[in-house]
Description:
Chain A is α+β, with helices and mostly antiparallel strands and 277 residues long. Chain A has 5 helices and 14 strands. Chain A is 19% helix and 27% strand. Chain A has an 8-stranded antiparallel sheet. A 5-stranded mixed sheet of chain A has the order 3-4-2-11-12, covered by helices on one side. The longest helix of chain A is centred in the N-terminal third of the chain and has 15 residues. In chain B, α1 packs across α2, α3 packs across α4 and α4 packs parallel to α7. Chains A and B meet through α1, β1 and α2 of A and α2, α3, α4, β1 and α5 of B.
Amino acid sequence: MSQRELDLERALSDLGASLEFPPTPDLAAAVTARLGEAPATAPAGQRLRGWLGGLLRLPGWRRLAVAGMVAAVLAATVLVASPGTRQAVARRLGLRGVEVRIGEPPPPTASTRPSDRLELGLGERVTLEQARRRVAFPVLVPGAGALQRPSAVFVDQTVPEGGRVDLVYRAQPGLPASRFTDVGLLITQFRGQPTPEFIKKVTGMGLVEEVTVGGEPGYWFSGEPHFFTYRDAGGNLREEQTRLAGNTLIWQRGELTLRLEGEVSREEALRIAESMR
Amino acid sequence: MGETQSVEGRPLDDQELVEQARGGDARAYEALVRRYQDLAFRTAYVIAGRTADAEDAAQEGFVKAWYALSRFRAGAPFRPWLLAIVANEARNRRRTGRRQDDLALRVAEDRPSGDAAPSPEAAALATEQRRLLLAAVGRLGQADQQVITCRYFLELSEAEMASALGCRPGTVKSRLSRALERLRVVLAEQGGGPLPASKLRGGER
């Protein structure tokens, strides 16, 4: 770094030290007054349904009339009941079966985390070979090293269009436990339904990035936690508190929609995704 | 304030306060809010551009962070996590809040302090130089202003800047150096160019 650059940087730091910002309002009082707002008595599931119902009734919210399974990723922090924040924005990504909603997050729930017993409520636990026989699509696994052997495999055959497979990896060196599930990595695959229209660009959210995986479209979600829900066979939106997600990559591979979740960097996620065979 | 002090009476650090707040201790959280309300409000102000929006965003951010504490990873640094939530609130308000007012930051009059107190003339010169530099920053585009403000005025770390600006940590450095490059151009057009920091401080040190 040149002297000239250092001088400018020093001058800016000096300026910063003598700047006056507008006076900070007393946030502590206002914030603590609001900490009791959220309902604390209803069971988590009930509150969640109430929230999703509320989301669907919001003005401007375009409900999807897509049959079958729709995976939705919701930017999720917490519910705050003030009317000023009741905004929801739906983003349709160019991925089959995937919808992103950015809007009012779900209410706080008791911090019940699935244990490290890898019980995520994903369906029936099977072997990889059994999973391959039970679903109607070729099951892909990462091609790299230890990830070729998942710690556990689950199949949910009630999911339309051939079922859904989840590969679960225990936290291990290089694969830290998720903030939300104690699991190191979770890879989900299913046949997404074609959506009637596409909105490819997701702008300005700061949390969603377009990526390409093997030449096909994908999205990388990072930063704030996201919420993961899907439509079940009966067409009902199903939410899974246990699937509150940290960093998530969702991408397309032919007829399959895949989703990878874990405390991995974008580059690492892309590397794993590209390696899947 | 029994709950927010350790047995030895030293102030609790972030991690200890976060741990207590996760257990539902609103007073521990209040201590965290007091610790970071300046930083949260100013960051929100830099992004949203208006004090009313900044107050709203910072308040909302703190409330949301409280309810999200159960999902906060124990041991992770609290500041960047909080800033990401607050900055996101601020961005949402900027988008819906139409045009952005210019940041109304002011240069304080030089307050002589200690043995390095400059003469009144030197102090006046330093104040004038700072005003010129601030004016030059104000002529930059919004993105450049934000990255410079986050780094030099709010003194955020690179990780915190990435959180606040909603970009990848890897891009912070290059954004900053491009902003400085453009600032240098503005200063050259303004005449005189940047003075060495020693002159800005009144030449006494």
